[in-house]
Design brief:
single chain; 168 residues; Four Helix Bundle (Hemerythrin (Met), subunit A); 6 helices
């Protein structure tokens, strides 16, 4: 498994634990090797067992993560309807689309990890615009959603016979 970028000392704090969970690598592969060296043709291939391509899945992950981050930081944010969390079924990615999706997901993940590590983050107070919701809930939601779909991504790569570099 990939080496975590979260330091040992940080892991002794709640924020450090959350950052480590977001980064992955404990119970599953981390994001970067999962998406590394993905051929564009494979990224746009739908296997019979799935309703979406690897790029659709990656773009869904990026959009959902961004939605949760916007919900945390913007008191006036309104989530789009569910269908907007996925690209259109027939849409395919260009090399630039793939690069933007990877970079956008990584940027959002880094932002979530930074929020987790920030000693000023109040994890438990209700969000002012969403009673019953707090930052720890939202960061755990990001980690949970990402872990679920990263597992799917690895499965898609197996079906497509394009393993991540150095894997199986």
């Amino acid at each position: 498994m990939a080496q975590s970028i979260v330091g040992t000392v940080e892991k002794k704090t709640l924020g450090g634990q959350l950052a480590a969970l977001l980064d992955g690598g404990n119970a599953h592969m981390t994001f970067d090797p999962i998406v590394a060296e993905m051929p564009l043709a494979a990224a746009n291939t739908r296997v019979p067992q799935f309703n979406y391509t690897p790029w659709h899945l990656l773009e869904h992950m990026r959009r959902a993560q961004l939605d949760i981050l916007e919900f945390i930081r913007d008191l006036d944010y309104v989530s789009p309807p569910y269908e907007k969390f996925w690209p259109d079924r027939e849409e395919t990615a260009t090399a630039e689309d793939w690069r933007r999706s990877v970079a956008g997901f990584r940027e959002g993940l880094d932002e979530a990890m930074k929020l987790a590590r920030d000693p000023e983050t109040d994890f438990f107070s209700p969000l002012p615009h969403a009673p019953g919701y707090n930052i720890i809930r939202e960061l755990l939601l990001i980690a949970d959603h990402n872990a679920y779909h990263l597992g799917e991504f690895v499965t898609l790569r197996q079906f497509l016979q394009v393993p991540p570099p150095g894997k199986w």
